[in-house]
Amino acid sequence: MKRDPRDLVRYNASERANHWVVGICFILLALSGLAFFHPAFFWLTNLFGGGPWTRILHPYIGVVMGAFFVIMACRFAKLNIVEPRDIEWLKNVNKMIDGDDHDMPEQGKYNGGQKLLFWGLVIGMLLIVITGFLMWRAWWTLPVDVVRAASVVHAIAAVWMIGLIIMHVYAAIWTRGTIRAMLYGTVTRAWAKQHHRGWYRKMTGDND
After folding, report:
1. pTM
2. Could you list the active site residues?
3. Which residues partner with 187 through β-bridges?
4. Cα diameter, the chain
């Protein structure tokens, strides 16, 4: 891909790799989790070598995702602290949905919607990881009532996470130029100025 030397770096290689490891692990976990959720999806176990292998691999992939998500969350938590301007952005989100985002409140590297998504994913990931460990009978045995309760919460948290990820992917596709940032690490100055004016000013020193 031909790049303009004036493009702004939004994510470095390490941040992009971190994101894709979490993303790939999540897809694998969603597929294997659906296989256990309902018999209609059990055929998905063929992607992992059959039922027994799927049951073995699912929690270990979960450990990898959880570990890399912690790294990612620590990297981006400070940038996702909700500020007054984010609340104003959320109040005016209908303008953006209608395609008129030029009058939206100025945003930093992430807008109010992205910040809500981030914290929603953090909550969902905590629930999934904690309940996943409680359900991991290969390593310890807990009272059956605890395992059953953990299974219910695990399933609810998984649905919550899948919903948020679908929103995340849809928003990335809908906002043209966003996917490029996570593939190549850069965005155009025009994209940055339109969607994240505060971040654009910080990166360029341009106050226009």
Report:
1. 0.89
2. 168
3. 8
4. 63
